Amino acid sequence: MGIVADGFDIQRCVKAAAAIEADLTRLLSDLTESQFHAPQRTGGWSVGYCVEHLLLTGHAFLPNWDRALHGAPKVGHHGEQFRYEWWQRALLRFAENPSRLRRKTAAPFVPCSRHSIEETVARFYGMHREFVRRVAGTRGLDAGRAKVQSPFASWISYSLGFSFDLALAHERRHLSQAWQVRQSMEGL
């Protein structure tokens, strides 16, 4: 698991995204197609479904980030970097840890299609390039005052900067889950 962010910082977000991509590469190294698609013996998602879930959520966030970036005020009170409130830091800790904050995934984010490792990785990296482009797009904007509507619940919104860290924590959570799936196969 990564270090939970205590505030928004463009460079740290970009580095965290690169670390997630490197972790995904390590996770998938030497994995066969059948292992990629095999669920845990105890039930649950396969490695492929964990990554597909991240694609679904990432693509759901992209238009919301675009709207927030379009309407974001110029650097003002918060500036490009700002510290999160205590409850935001707590939410990031819960979002990152797979053993905490468990809830059923909403239907639009439940993975149901199977793609090859190669195609899945290419799609993930493509989505991640778009993510990094949006993070970089906050330069000169007040990412603390700009609000993003949650793709999971229309009645929830949070600051643009916080939404990036929330997405990264969510990715680390499901990559950790995928590592658990992979490790459960090693004893077979």
Provide the spatial order of strands within the biggest beta sheet: 1-2
Please report the first level of CATH classification, the CATH class.
Answer: Mainly Alpha
Q: How would you sum up the major sheet?
A: 2 strands, antiparallel
Q: How big a fraction of the residues is strand? A: 5-15%
CATH topology: Four Helix Bundle (Hemerythrin (Met), subunit A)
Low-confidence stretches: none
Helix and strand succession?
EHHHEHHEEH
The total count of strands amounts to: 4
Helix content: 55-70%
Helical segment tally?
A: 6
Globular, elongated, flat, extended or rod-shaped: what is the shape? elongated
Protein structure class? mainly alpha
CATH architecture: Up-down Bundle
Q: How many distinct domains?
A: 1
Radius of gyration: 17 Å
> What gap, in angstroms, lies between the N and C termini?
25 Å
Mean pLDDT score, rounded? 85
Structure, described:
This protein is mostly helical and 188 residues long. It has one domain (21-185): Four Helix Bundle (Hemerythrin (Met), subunit A) (Up-down Bundle), CATH 1.20.120. 56% of the residues lie in helices and 5% in strands. The chain is built from 6 helices and 4 strands. The protein has helices at residues 10-28, 33-37, 47-71, 86-96, 117-136, 160-185, and strands at residues 7-8, 82-83, 147-149, 157-159. The chain has a two-stranded antiparallel sheet with strand order 1-2. Strands 3-4 form a two-stranded antiparallel sheet. The radius of gyration is 17 Å and the shape is elongated. The two termini are 25 Å apart. The model has no long low-confidence stretch (mean pLDDT 85).
